[in-house]
Amino acid sequence: MNLRKKFIIFMGPIGSGKDTQAAILAPKIGYTIFKSTQALEEKFRNTKPEDPDYEDMIKEKNMWDNGILLTPHWVAGVVNEAVQKLVDSGVKGIIFSGSPRTLPEAEQEIPKLESFGGKDAIVLFKLHVSGGESMKRNSLRLFCQKNSHPIDPEVAKTNPSICPEDGGKVIRRTLDNPDVIKVRLGEFEQRTVPAIEYVEKRGIESINIPGENSIQGVADDVWKELSKYTLND
Q: For the chain, what are the domain ranges?
């Protein structure tokens, strides 16, 4: 096939490399990365006690901190609003890192993407890693508090408290606590796998990628598959 793609979706269990591969691919093709995690964290930070939905936000935040997926329809609303703004701003294309996470989210988000260019405007990459590998990777993960991007633990050894890219504080997320990781892996199997199946049943291109190879090896596999499509207007 030789189809123009505007939306690329990376899905897989936690620690499968979704954020990493999105960060590698985006500058190569000029697409904008959309992370539902970052969008939700911004919602949590920006909600104030005087806001009418503050109590609901507190409930969602407690679920978030314990590794439980949030209320799907609320998440989908946040995502679709943000995606519409990006499309309206004229971005070339969008790479989704881990979204949608549940079937109800997929049922709201995927038709929204199709409305911009049909099923042929979307391609899904499924990154596969074992539960043991996911646990290992996530227990070591570090993030920049300022811009939410992952930090290589080896790079962080030079200065374990300051992000080498933008000077933000280096943090470990509550989401990467071992007990929370186990919950999140269970959530993936029970709630995200049905979302993946929904995307595939709609006839959207779906590609399996082994995620336990080296970072560059996975990136090469993604690029090999993506090179089959025309990505430019």
A: 7-130+194-226
pTM above 0.85, yes or no: no
7-130+194-226 falls under which CATH superfamily? P-loop containing nucleotide triphosphate hydrolases (3.40.50.300)
In this prediction, the residues of the chain whose per-residue pLDDT falls under 70 are 1-4, 140, 152-157, 173-175, 230-233
> DSSP assignment of 59-109, as one string?
HHHHHHHTTPPP-HHHHHHHHHHHHHHHHHTT-S-EEEES---SHHHHHHH
CA distances from 24 to 33, 75, 130, 134, 222 (A): 10, 26, 22, 20, 10
Question: pLDDT tens digits for 216-230?
Answer: 999 999 999 998 876
